[in-house]
Design goal:
Blueprint: E1 4-7, H1 11-23, E2 28-32, H2 40-44, E3 51-54, H3 60-65, E4 73-76, H4 81-94, E5 99-103, H5 107-116, E6 120-123, H6 125-137, E7 143-146, E8 149-155, E9 165-171, E10 180-181, H7 189-201, E11 219-226, H8 236-251, H9 254-278, H10 281-292, H11 311-341, E12 358-361, H12 365-376, E13 381-385, H13 391-398, E14 403-405, H14 410-416, E15 424-427, H15 432-445, E16 450-454, H16 458-467, E17 471-474, H17 476-488, E18 493-499, E19 502-510, H18 522-526, E20 531-537, E21 546-547, E22 561-566, H19 568-573
Parallel strand pairs: 1-2, 1-4, 2-3, 4-5, 5-6, 12-13, 12-15, 13-14, 15-16, 16-17
Antiparallel strand pairs: 7-8, 8-11, 9-10, 9-11, 18-19, 19-22, 20-21, 20-22
Length: 625
């Protein structure tokens, strides 16, 4: 039996098994470490599962018992990096050439394993999902780099005229069941509706026209592209101030900062007094700098006060000189504290003046990555973790990020993290109830705060969307499982984009023998629904991406590459068996006279012009595509 093995009992294994069975329709054998723990009970109840085996550890004997010799692929999505590498090598030894997908936390090590084992792909679930959480906290669109551009999803009034395609309509955050991902209707018509609505609002074009047939009311989402990463919605001077303050907090303690501040204010005031006495800014700076360096030339009895060195100036010089004397030992103390004693890794609490920061609750693999990404943007971060043994604590403290550790009540920890002055809370523990508790406690302290929650259960997430405002819900397994499944089936997924709780996949496929793409038209790829071709790389021009490829009847040739936006079902449907046969060589028979029925496989060219009854077909040339 040609089947696929999925090893793991976590949420990712659960989602991956369902992805393979429901969307790729392949036999799956599950290897679960404990059927009574974690997601083991749910995995054993998945309909259509070929077999379930319980194992304490993956060994060569276990793999043989699960039929590794006849398997097409194996996914190792649980356990440690070391254990997954050992299991991958054992699988390669028993079935050379088997397709292997590894979940690796250490991505650098995963790249080395890919070069070591043929037909092996290393992925990280937390690395795949972390950008969606970080960008959600910053209210910044998550993007995927493809074809030299950054593709992201824009909503409603943010949709521009140069969109690539409409990916969702009927959006209602209070009822996500109405949302349609990659709808079969609307499409480019949404551009004209928005244009007419704009003219109508300005009083130039009358009232906006009614929506086209088949178009449900609600918001729209569209795929758009930028030549550079979508900008961070925080002014650059604010980010600069955050970095300066963070550097001061890292290299100095609170007492040293207080001493430096008092000395600096005294020097500035003394310099101002000297300037007032001399009446010359250049001489004032000259005297002030010399006094700070301890090179003051004191007046002598009998000196004429007419040169500007009156009693106030002399008093200012004394103050500046003594303040300057303190700078040398303070600078020495800072150097010793930063280099000799080493502040890296030492606990540090959030400062009393902390503002506009992000509170990250949970320092597991995902939380550590999210906090690191937020810090790279320059945004201040405070972390909260209950387990003192968590690996992320040391990693964050090494970066100088304040971490609050302990089993204290969550409300008290959030107050210590100054959540009342924070811009967002990101709760990414592995417990849905704990994440919801963090969201509610933060909302009780700061009603307007933005909340990003990690929630596995879809129904639970829908209730959260309908109940709480200004909230973003994400599931790590839901975001990463499609990429793991596509890699196991030999597809190249560039990234995933979230449309609320739905997932949009961006993939680049090559037309080659066995791919089922050679001879298919661009229109034919899209016609069944669930797929949009947003760009084409022709074999004769591999370096150029032709965005919104106009020739929808073009038949793909060997070496052509197509850049797709697809749902999970849409990408799975692009299997090795072509949906439309390539044209037969040689002369074609002349068409019979008289009217001919329309082909069952759908049109292979642009839709005919003129009125069409029923739902409006989505245009396939230019524009939205």
């Amino acid at each position: 039996m040609s089947h696929y093995l999925v090893c793991g009992g976590n949420a990712l294994a659960h989602r991956l098994i369902r992805e393979l069975i429901e969307h790729y329709d392949v036999p799956v054998v599950a290897l679960v470490p404990d059927l009574t723990q974690d997601h083991g009970p749910r995995i054993s109840q998945i309909p259509g599962l070929a077999a379930v085996h319980e194992y304490p550890a993956i060994s060569a004997e276990t793999l043989r018992a699960c039929g590794i010799e006849e398997a097409n692929g194996i996914a190792l999505v649980d356990g440690t990096d070391q254990g997954n590498i050992h299991a991958a090598m054992a699988a390669e030894g028993l079935n050379p050439g088997i397709r292997i997908v590894l979940r690796m936390y250490n991505q650098r090590l995963g790249q080395h394993i890919e070069r070591l084992l043929p037909n092996c792909t290393s992925l990280s679930g937390s690395a795949t999902a972390a950008p969606a959480f970080a960008n959600g906290a910053l209210e910044r669109p998550n993007s995927v780099h493809a074809g030299g551009r950054y593709l992201y999803v824009a909503y409603d009034e943010e949709i521009r005229d140069n969109q690539l395609c409409v990916v969702a309509d009927g959006i209602d955050p209070q009822d996500l069941g109405r949302l349609r991902l990659l709808p079969d209707t609307a499409g480019r018509a949404a551009e004209f509706i928005a244009l007419a609505r704009r003219f109508g609002d300005e009083g130039q074009g009358g009232p906006p026209p009614p929506p086209p047939p088949g178009h449900e009311p609600g918001g729209l989402a569209a795929l758009q592209a930028l030549t550079e990463r979508p900008p961070l919605r925080i002014p650059w001077w604010t980010r600069l101030r955050w970095r300066v303050l963070d550097a001061l907090r890292f290299f100095t303690s609170a007492r040293l900062r207080l001493l430096l501040t008092v000395a600096l204010v005294a020097v500035l005031l003394g310099g101002a007094v000297i300037w007032w006495s001399t009446g010359h800014l250049g001489w004032a700076l000259y005297y002030t700098l010399l006094d700070v360096a301890g090179a003051a030339d004191p007046d002598r009895p009998g000196d004429s006060p007419g040169d500007g060195s009156g009693p106030w100036a002399r008093a200012a010089q004394v103050v500046v000189t003594f303040c300057g004397i303190t700078f040398a030992p303070v600078a020495t103390a800072i150097a010793v504290e930063a280099l000799a004693t080493g502040r890296r890794g030492l606990p540090r609490g959030p400062g009393a003046g902390l503002r506009d920061h992000v509170v990250v609750v949970g320092l597991n693999n995902l939380g550590t990555r999210v906090a690191g990404m937020l810090r790279e943007t320059g945004v201040p971060v405070v972390c909260v973790e209950r387990d003192p043994q968590s690996r992320g604590i040391a990693a964050m403290r090494a970066l100088g990020v304040p971490v609050l550790v302990g089993d204290a009540p969550l409300a008290g920890q959030l107050r210590r993290a100054r959540v009342q002055h924070a811009r967002a809370v990101v709760s990414v523990t592995r417990d849905d109830a704990a994440n919801l508790e963090a969201a509610l406690e933060a909302r009780a302290i700061h009603p307007e705060i933005r909340i990003v929650c990690r929630l596995f259960d879809d129904d639970f997430a829908h209730h959260v969307y309908a109940t709480l405002g200004n909230v973003v819900s994400r599931s790590v397994s839901y975001l990463s499982a499609p990429g793991f499944a596509a890699a196991l089936m030999g597809r190249e997924v560039l990234g995933t984009l979230s449309v609320f709780r739905h997932v949009l996949l961006l993939a680049e496929l090559t037309a080659e023998d066995g791919s089922g793409l050679i001879g298919r038209t661009v229109w034919g790829l899209e016609e069944p629904g669930g797929v949009r071709v947003v760009g084409v790389r022709l074999a004769r021009r591999p370096g150029d991406v032709l965005w919104n490829f106009a020739d929808r009847g073009y038949r793909l040739r060997a070496g052509d590459r197509v850049l797709l936006a697809a749902t999970r079902i849409g990408l799975a449907r692009l299997g090795p068996a072509p949906a439309e046969p390539p044209p037969a060589p040689g002369p074609q028979p002349a068409p019979a006279s008289g009217p001919q029925p329309a082909p069952a496989s759908g049109p292979v060219g642009p839709p005919p012009a003129g009125p069409v009854s029923g739902p409006v077909p989505e245009p396939r040339s230019g524009g939205a595509g």
